[in-house]
Design a protein that fits this description.
49% of the residues lie in helices and 14% in strands. With 111 residues, it is α+β, with helices and mostly antiparallel strands. The strands form 2 sheets. It has a two-stranded antiparallel ribbon with strand order 1-2. Strands 3-4 form a two-stranded parallel sheet. Helix 2 crosses helix 3. It starts with 6 loop residues before the first strand and ends with a helix.
Length: 111
């Protein structure tokens, strides 16, 4: 199912790795839905396993080539919605200054 990327687990309780789309392999709308699905699936898996929180990097923005600004918009939007719906706290983590600033801008804009 192209709209449900897998979430890999390192144990029976904790999601470990959410896989997003390689941006160049899809049209923009499909890439967007696949990216959102990666976050959504991991949050739902966390909830189903009794996790109270989950943290994510900016999925697909590295070697997978998803444009950073667009990816941050989608990450903030889907994570806010799924956190509200599931009660799972979500932390978005930027591993470099540019990504952290982009995520922060989107969080500020969404408030």
């Amino acid at each position: 199912d192209l709209h449900s990327f897998p979430t890999r687990r390192s144990s029976d309780l904790e999601p470990d790795h959410a896989v997003g789309p390689v941006y160049s392999r899809y049209g923009p709308d499909e890439a967007r839905e696949l990216l959102r699905s990666a976050y959504r699936s991991a949050i739902l898996l966390a909830k189903d396993n009794g996790c109270r929180s989950i943290a994510f990097p900016a999925i697909s923005t590295g070697i997978y080539g998803y444009p950073l600004e667009e990816a941050c918009v989608e990450a903030v939007d889907v994570c806010r919605a799924e956190s509200a719906a599931t009660g799972v706290a979500v932390k978005l983590v930027g591993f470099d200054a540019g990504t952290a600033e982009c995520l922060q801008r989107q969080l500020d804009h969404a408030e």
